[in-house]
Each structure stands twice: as structure tokens, then as C-alpha cells.
């Protein structure tokens, strides 16, 4: 009896796409479930069980699906069908294929206004709050930067523009030599 109820509740929830319904539709879905003679406690237990199974199913490896072209190729060669797990796309890519080698004489890129603010603010924050780690300091600095208005950001943006000018000058000299 339990399995039948479970299956019925599962089919009702799946057909109604329970999580994406408006409140009125959810109420009618719950009434359908209650019409099966299930108490509220049983309903909550079954719904939680279904959600746990769905969550677990998300983490199960899915078999690789064959395309029509690969099925035709396999049929022509009369080779047995093997299901192979798809390799991780990141692991398959070589990391240094198109990486450009950096010239040690090339000028350092210009800083941004945010980086100028961070380089000034980080030591101040570290002195007042030594308990914060690098990531936490970065979060505090980012929050402060985002809450600043244009007038407060202006000195740091001016520093960035000055550094951009330095970079452009150094690049013209560097490009003339190379």
C-alpha cells in the first residue's frame, strides 16, 4: 500500500511540476494528494523523500548518449557498443596550448581605480582588523568600493589614469624597440 501511495504522489508532483507552481495550483495539487487518503504528516514525509531521491539522482553519473552518426558508425564496423563515461572537459584541455610567453622587459599593465583603492586601503584594514584573512579583506574592500559615489572614487580613478598614461608611454618605447 505504501509503494502505491508513494508512486501516486510522485506522479502527481511530477505532472504538476510542484516547485514551479503558483500558490493556487499548489493548493489544488495538495488537495489531489489528500484525496488519496494521506495525512499531512505522511504527505510531508513522502514529499521530502521524493525531493531527496531527486537530489540524489542529480549526482548520479548519466550514461553517455549516442548520436545517430555514432550509432551508424558502430553498425558499419560491427563493433560492440560500449558505454564510456564522458571525460571531464576541463581535464581534457591542455592548459598551455595558446599561452603567450611573457617578455620580462614588457611594461607592467596599468592599475584600475579599484586596485589603487585596494592597495591603499588593505594595509589600513589589516592594521585595524588583523583577524580578517585575505579573502575577507577583499570582500570588505569590494563592499566599500561599491558603496562609494563617483566623487569619493575620483582620486583613485585619477591615479589609475596616471598609471594608464605611464603604461602607454612605456609601451610606445617598448614597441619601438621590438
N- to C-terminal distance: 82 Å
| β-sheet strand percentage | under 5%
Q: What does the average pLDDT come to? A: 77
Order of helices and strands: HHHHHHHH
CATH class of the domain at 113-177: Mainly Alpha
Class inferred from helices and paired strands: mainly alpha
Shape verdict = elongated
CATH architectural type of the domain at 113-177 = Orthogonal Bundle
| CATH third-level topology of the domain at 113-177 | DNA Binding (I), subunit A
Low-confidence stretches: none
Q: What is the overall number of helices?
A: 8
Overall radius of gyration: 30 Å
How many beta-strand segments?
Answer: 0
* Helical proportion, percent range: 55-70%
Main β-sheet description: none
Short descriptors:
178 residues, single chain, elongated, mainly alpha, DNA Binding (I), subunit A, 8 helices
Give a description of the structure.
Among the domains are: about 1-60; about 115-175, DNA Binding (I), subunit A. It has helices at about 1-15, 25-35, 40-60, 70-75, 90, 115-130, 135-145, 150-175. About 5% of the residues are buried. Helices cover about 65% and strands about 0% of the residues. It is mainly α and about 180 residues long. It is elongated.
Amino acid at each position: 500500500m505504501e509503494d502505491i501511495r508513494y508512486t501516486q504522489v510522485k506522479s502527481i508532483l511530477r505532472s504538476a511540476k510542484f516547485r514551479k507552481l503558483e500558490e493556487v495550483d499548489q493548493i489544488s495539487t495538495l488537495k489531489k494528494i489528500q484525496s488519496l487518503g494521506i495525512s499531512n504528516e505522511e504527505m510531508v514525509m513522502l514529499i521530502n523523500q521524493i525531493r531527496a531521491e531527486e537530489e540524489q539522482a542529480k549526482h548520479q553519473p548519466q550514461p553517455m548518449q549516442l548520436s545517430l552518426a555514432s550509432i551508424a558508425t558502430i553498425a558499419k564496423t560491427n563493433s560492440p557498443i560500449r558505454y564510456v563515461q564522458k571525460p571531464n572537459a576541463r581535464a581534457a584541455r591542455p592548459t598551455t596550448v595558446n599561452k603567450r610567453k611573457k617578455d620580462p622587459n614588457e611594461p607592467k599593465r596599468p592599475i584600475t581605480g579599484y586596485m589603487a583603492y585596494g592597495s591603499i586601503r588593505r594595509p589600513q584594514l589589516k592594521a585595524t582588523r588583523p583577524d580578517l584573512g585575505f579573502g575577507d579583506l577583499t570582500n570588505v574592500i569590494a563592499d566599500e568600493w561599491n558603496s562609494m559615489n563617483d566623487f569619493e572614487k575620483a582620486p583613485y580613478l585619477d591615479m589609475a589614469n596616471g598609471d594608464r598614461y605611464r603604461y602607454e608611454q612605456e609601451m610606445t618605447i617598448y614597441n619601438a624597440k621590438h
